[in-house]
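Quick one: co-fold with cytidine-5'-monophosphate.
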Amino acid sequence: ATRTVVTLDGPAGAGKSTTAREVARRLGYRYLDSGALYRALTFALLEEGVDEAVWGDLDREALDALGVTVAPVEGTLELGHRGRVLGDELRTPQVTARVSAVARLPAVRRWLLRHQQALGRHGRLVTDGRDMGTVVFPEAGTKVFLQADLDERARRRLLDQGVRAPGARERQQAAEKLAARDHADMSRETSPLRPADDAVVLDTTALDFEEQVEAVVALARRVD
Ligand code: C5P
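Sure, here it is.
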C-alpha cells in the first residue's frame, strides 16, 4: 500500500507544503504536513514553560504528559493542545525558531513516528517534511526532494508573510533564518535532512507553482 505514498522532502521554504497539498487534492489522496507535528510539540513545550535545558531528557512519558493530541480527522491529522485546536499557533516566529532543536531529539522522533506511519498505512497519501522518504516511508513509490536557491526561498517565504517588495536587509535576514534551520536539520544525527537514494531531485527555482505541482503529479501517476 505504501507504493501509493508520495513523499516531498527538502529544505525550508522550498514550497513543499503548498505543493504537497495541491498534489494531494489533484490525486484525491490524503495529506500529511509532518512539520506541523514537530511544531505542535514545540508549541506545547513553550506553552508549558518546559526549560530548554531539560528538553534532551524528555522521555515517552514526559512527551505523553505535554497535552498534545494527534487525531485523524478528515484524512489528515488534527493537532491540539489541552483541548485547543492548533492552527496559526504553529507558525509563530517563536515556534519556528525553536522547532529544529525539538526535531533533533530522538525521543521526539520516535514519539511521532507511529502517528505518521498510521496515516500512510493504506497508501494514497502525500506527505512533506525532512525524512519522509528516508525514514518514515522508505517504501514510498514516489519520492521527491524539492530544492530551490536560498534567495528564491527567502523571497517566497516573505511573500507568504505578505511582504511583496522586501528590502535587501529583510531578504538577507529571511535567508539567514532559513539557512540556520537547514543547517540544523542537515547536521543532526537522527534522521537528518537528505534526499533518499531513490528520490527524484526537483529544483523549483525557475518553476512556477503550476509547473511544480504538475511535475510531482506526473511522477506519482507513473506509480498509481
Ligand atoms: O516543514 P516545516 O518548516 O513546518 O518543519 C519545521 C521543522 O520540523 C523543520 O525545520 C525540522 O526541524 C522539523 N521536521 C523534521 N522532520 C520532518 C518534518 C519537519 O525534522 N519530517
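If it helps, The CA atoms of residues 131 and 200 lie 14 Å apart.
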